[in-house]
Each structure stands twice: as C-alpha cells, then as structure tokens.
Amino acid sequence: MESKTSTYEDMVRQKIAERGSQGISQQELAKSVGLSTRELSIIIKKLIEKKQVIKKSVKENGKSVVKLFAVQVFEEPKLLVELNSVADIPCFSCKFLYKCNEGTHVNPNSCSKLSQWILSIIAK
After folding, report:
1. What does the pLDDT read at residue 72?
2. Closest CA to 43 of 23, 26, 58
3. 105 in a domain, yes or no?
4. Residue 55 and residue 14 share a domain
5. Residue 76 has what pLDDT?
6. One domain for residues 59 and 105
7. Which residues have CB under 8 Å from 25's CB, separation 6+?
8. Which range marks the domain in which residue 18 is found?
9. pTM here?
C-alpha cells in the first residue's frame, strides 16, 4: 500500500512537471496542492534529495524569484549493436585513424587491414 507521503510527493512532482520550463514558485505550488508551506517544504526537500526536482533563481518582472523545476528523466538508451561485434574492427586500433579519409593517402578504400577484416567477416 502506498504511503500518504509518497502520494503527496507524486502529486507535487506532477504539479511541478506540468509547469515545464516556466517552473513554479513554492507559494503557488502550496495553493494549488492545498498543503501548508511547512508540509510542502518537507516534500520538496525529499524530491530535491531524490534529484527529481531542482530549485533555480530566475528573473521575473525585474525581481529574482526562486522557482521549482522538474528534472527530466531519460530512459537508459537501448544498444542496437552489440559492442563485441564491432570491437574487432581494425580502424579502432589504427594509429592512422585521425588521418584516414576519402581522397587522402590513408583511406578506407586502400586499407589492407580493413579489407582483410571485411573478407574474414564474409567468410564466416
């Protein structure tokens, strides 16, 4: 069963996230969620510790105002290529990699190590 505190944390985080890049002041947030500023301060402190919310000072109508912003959570990227399948490519250990380019003396078209590696892959 979910605790009352975590329910409030979810609600507060959601309200902050809804404001997006505008952010929301703690006073506005207290009014919109119906919590006392003391209760809200405790919840905000927990959300900041969990790195779900940040406080930032912004200029608004010439005044400096502290606003709350939701931290964007990005999903772990999915690897589409297994790294062991490209680890053997000779280019990654070649001392001429920084010079290698189409139309230069050192290039992929004339590289014997790359050609041998490609042929070994095809032969499998």
Report:
1. 79
2. 26
3. yes
4. yes
5. 73
6. no
7. 65, 66, 67, 68
8. 4-70
9. 0.54
Same domain? For 14 and 54 the reply is yes
Is residue 53 located within the same domain as residue 90?
no
Give the contacts of 4 (CB within 8 A, at least 6 positions apart). Answer: none
CA 106 to the chain's CA centroid: 37
Burial 41-56 (b: 16+ CB within 10 A, else e): eebbebbeeeebbeee
**Contact indicator for 49, 58 with CB cutoff of 8 Å:** no
Residues paired with 66 in a beta bridge: 57
Query: Which residues of the chain are modeled with pLDDT < 50?
Result: 1
Identify which of 4, 123, 16 has the alpha carbon closest to the alpha carbon of residue 26.
16
Whole-angstrom Cα distance, residue 60 to residue 82?
Answer: 49
CA distance 93 to 100: 12
User: How many domains are there within the chain?
Assistant: 2
Q: 3-class DSSP state for residue 69?
A: strand
